[in-house]
C-alpha cells in the first residue's frame, strides 16, 4: 500500500490544540503518530462490526508496532448504538481494561462510534485522552473534528453529551474504499456544505472534480483537507457554538425534520441524504424569500443530482406526513419566538448566514409548495 505524505490541519484551541492528519495509508502509521504524541499509554479501541471486519487487524498491527497495548470494544453498527446501554458497555469495557485517565480511548468508525466513544472518553475518570480515527466520509469531514460528543435519548437525537476535544484525528482516506457508496454519497453532502457556507470556489472545484473525489485519487484527500480546514477554523472561532459555528447546520433544519418524519429509518433516508435535501431546500427557500438567485438554487440541485444524492422531498421513498406535520417537526426542536424561527439561509453559493426571524407561515407555504403531494399535481 502506498503511503502519501499526510496533510496536517491544526485545530487551534490554545493548550488543547490538536492536529488532523489526512492521507491515504495513514492507518499503518497510526501507532507511531499516537505514540509520539501520547507516549507510554494504553488504549481502548471502540469500533463497530463493519469497520472491525474491514480494518481492525491493520489498526491493531499498527498500534502494536507503536508499542501501544490495546483492548477492543466492538459494537453493532447503526444509529441505535448511540444509546445509554452501549455507553454503559463502553464505559465498562474501558474500566475492565483498567485504563487510567492518561490512557486513550480510540474511536475507530463513523460518526456513531466517534460520538459514543468520545462521550465515554469525556466522562470516564472525569475525562480521558481521546483519539479519533474516522472511517466514514461524514466522520472525516465533520463529526471527528470539533469535540461534540454524545448519544441519543428516546426523546430525540444528540440530546445527551459533552464537549470533549480529541488529542489527534487520523483520517486515512484509503479506508473509505470499503465504505458503501450510499454512505459515501451521504458524507459528500457534508463535504459540499463547506463550499455552500462560505467557500464558493471550493463548491466550483467540487463541481469539476467530484468524480475523482469519489474514485479516490489525490483529489479525495485534497477535498477532505479543505473541509477539515473549514471546520477547524469554525471550531477555533466558536468552540461551544455560541456564534457562527451554527452555520455548520446549513440544511440541517429541514434535514432533521425529514429524518424525524421518516422515523430515522436509514433504509429511507440517512443523515447526509437529509442534509442534501435540506441544503437544496435552504437555497430554494432563500430564493423564494428574494434573498438569493434561483440560478444558485438550481446549481445546487443540479450538483446534488449529478452525484446521485436526493435533492427534493419527493426523492424520499414512501409516504410522508403533510407540510403542517413537517413544520411541527421543525418547531418541535426549535425555540419559536412569536411565530419566528432561526434558519441558516443564504444570499447565494458561499454566502450562508444565520437568519433569526423567519416567519413560520413562510416556512409552511414553502413546504406546502415543495411537498410531493403538490408536486404530483404540477410538472417540473
Ligand atoms: N459530533 C459531530 O459534530 C457530528 C457531526 C455530524 C454528524 N454526527 C453524527 O454522526 C453520525 C453519522 O455518522 P456516519 O454517517 O459516519 O454513520 P455511521 O457511523 O453509522 O457509519 C455509517 C455506516 O458505514 C459503516 N462504515 C463506516 N466506515 C466504514 C468503512 N470504512 N468501511 C465499511 N463500512 C464502514 C458503519 O458501520 C455504518 O454502517 C450521526 O449519529 C450524527 O448525529 C456528529
Model description:
The chain has 380 residues and is α/β, with parallel strands linked by helices. It is built from 14 helices and eleven strands. Strand 3 (43-48), helix 2 and strand 4 form a beta-alpha-beta unit. The structure holds nicotinamide-adenine-dinucleotide. The site of nicotinamide-adenine-dinucleotide has 30 residues, from helix 2, helix 4, helix 5 and helix 6.
Based on CA inertia axes, which overall geometry fits? Answer: globular
Strand tally is: 11
Ligands and ions found: nicotinamide-adenine-dinucleotide
Radius of gyration, Cα only, in angstroms?
A: 21 Å
SSE arrangement, N to C = EEHEHEHEHEHEEEHHHHHHHEEHH
Write a brief caption for the model.
With 380 residues, the chain is an alpha/beta fold.
Labels describing this entry:
single chain; 380 residues; alpha/beta; seven-stranded mixed sheet; two-stranded antiparallel sheet; 14 helices; globular; binds nicotinamide-adenine-dinucleotide
Amino acid at each position: 500500500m502506498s503511503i502519501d505524505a499526510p496533510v496536517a490541519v491544526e485545530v487551534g484551541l490554545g493548550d488543547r490544540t490538536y492536529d488532523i492528519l489526512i492521507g491515504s495509508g495513514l492507518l499503518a502509521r497510526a501507532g507511531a503518530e499516537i505514540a509520539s504524541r501520547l507516549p507510554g499509554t494504553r488504549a481502548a479501541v471502540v469500533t463497530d462490526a463493519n469497520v472491525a471486519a474491514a480494518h481492525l487487524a491493520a489498526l491493531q498491527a499498527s498500534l502494536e508496532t507503536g508499542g501501544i497495548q490495546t483492548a477492543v470494544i466492538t459494537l453493532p453498527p447503526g444509529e441505535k448504538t448511540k444509546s445509554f446501554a452501549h455507553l454503559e458497555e463502553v464505559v465498562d469495557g474501558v474500566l475492565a481494561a483498567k485504563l487510567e485517565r492518561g490512557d486513550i480511548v480510540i474511536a475507530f468508525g463513523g460518526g456513531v462510534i466517534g460520538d459514543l466513544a468520545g462521550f465515554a472518553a469525556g466522562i470516564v475518570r472525569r475525562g480521558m485522552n481521546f483519539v479519533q480515527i474516522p472511517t466514514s466520509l461524514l466522520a472525516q469531514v465533520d463529526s471527528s473534528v470539533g469535540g461534540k460528543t454524545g448519544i441519543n435519548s428516546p426523546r430525540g437525537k444528540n440530546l445527551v453529551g459533552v464537549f470533549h476535544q480529541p488529542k489527534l484525528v487520523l483520517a486515512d482516506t484509503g479506508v473509505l474504499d470499503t465504505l458503501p457508496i450510499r454512505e459515501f454519497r451521504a458524507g459528500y453532502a457534508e463535504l459540499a456544505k463547506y463550499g455552500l457556507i462560505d467557500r464558493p470556489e471550493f463548491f466550483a472545484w467540487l463541481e469539476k472534480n467530484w468524480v475523482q473525489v469519489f474514485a479516490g485519487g489525490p483529489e479525495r484527500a485534497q477535498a477532505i483537507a479543505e473541509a477539515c480546514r473549514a471546520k477547524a477554523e469554525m471550531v477555533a472561532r466558536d468552540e461551544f457554538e455560541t456564534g457562527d459555528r451554527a452555520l455548520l447546520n446549513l440544511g440541517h433544519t429541514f434535514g432533521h425534520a425529514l429524518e424525524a418524519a421518516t422515523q430515522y429509518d436509514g433504509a429511507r433516508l440517512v443523515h447526509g441524504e437529509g442534509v442534501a435535501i435540506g441544503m437544496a431546500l435552504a437555497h430554494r427557500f432563500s430564493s423564494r424569500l428574494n434573498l438569493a438567485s434561483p440560478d444558485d438554487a438550481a446549481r445546487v440541485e443540479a450538483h446534488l443530482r449529478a452525484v446521485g444524492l436526493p435533492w427534493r422531498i419527493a426523492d424520499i421513498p414512501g409516504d410522508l406526513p403533510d407540510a403542517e406535520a413537517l413544520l411541527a417537526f421543525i418547531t418541535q426542536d426549535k425555540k419559536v419566538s412569536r411565530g419566528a424561527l432561526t434558519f441558516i439561509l443564504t444570499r447565494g453559493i458561499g454566502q450562508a448566514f444565520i437568519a433569526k426571524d423567519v416567519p413560520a407561515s413562510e416556512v409552511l407555504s414553502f413546504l406546502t409548495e415543495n411537498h410531493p403531494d403538490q408536486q404530483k399535481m404540477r410538472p417540473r
